[in-house]
Amino acid sequence: MTPDTETFRFRRFLEVMAADGAVEVVEEPTPLSVIAHRLEGNPKGTWFRNAGPDGQELAGNI
Fold it and tell me: What is the full DSSP assignment across 31-49?
């Protein structure tokens, strides 16, 4: 039996939460120095799709 790794993948969880409006998705490039400010006091989770100089994905307040 092969485990279904897609069912419990964190990215899939974020996609479902974003579709429900519980996660804000930020597509534009976001400097690392701005991320803490965007998360502070935000009641929603935030999914940065292009964070830092390398354009990595980052999720916070989840």
Answer: -HHHHHHHHTT-SSEEEEE
